[in-house]
Amino acid sequence: MADNDIEIDLDDLGHRMDGAMTAxxxxxxxxxxxxxxxxxxxxxxxxAYDTVTPLNQVGTVNVPEPRMLTVTVWDKQLVNKxxxxxxxxxxxxxxxxxGTVIRLPIPELNEERRRxxxxxxxxxxxxxxxxxxxxxxxxxxxxxxxxxxxxSEDDQxxxxxxxxxxxxxxxxAIDAALESKQAEIMQV
Length: 188
Hints:
This protein is an alpha+beta fold and 188 residues long. It has helices spanning 10-30, 79-87, 111-148, 153-186, and strands spanning 45-48, 51-54, 59-65, 68-73, 96-98, 101-105. Helix 1 (10-30) packs antiparallel against helix 3, helix 1 packs parallel to helix 4 and helix 3 runs antiparallel to helix 4 (153-186). The N and C termini lie far apart (62 Å). 26% of the residues are buried. This is Ribosome-recycling factor. One of its GO terms (molecular function) is ribosomal large subunit binding.
């Protein structure tokens, strides 16, 4: 096999690293800052009709005010289950029931809770870094396999450099996202 026939799929590695960034962004959206955001409720599931169902599939989530969320539950029988799911979600929000509408006043975050949330954000970022490094390791394993298939040392160095550059770019993006999220959380 000639050197030109051996290629490493950088697109696949890039997509997988991008996937880690996408997952991180969605985890960051679920973290509560001082402002109301409909995405805060994305991780909440409700036991509806003997199935675990995402909250946004049993009701409409709205943000009528900067510090208020409302959930309009479509099925009256699920209102109590939705209220219980929100109460037990760990978001620190006390739902107020009003018929099929559940109001969620977003309280100010105290300093201790802000610090806690920045630590959680850092844990999410570290998990994303680990995912990116795992993709990097897979790419390096592909290079090792290609070496045994006849890839030259020069080509190995080129591919290794490209994978490392891609990894560094994604790690920097994760660090920037974390810094931004932590600043948003600490903003009073």
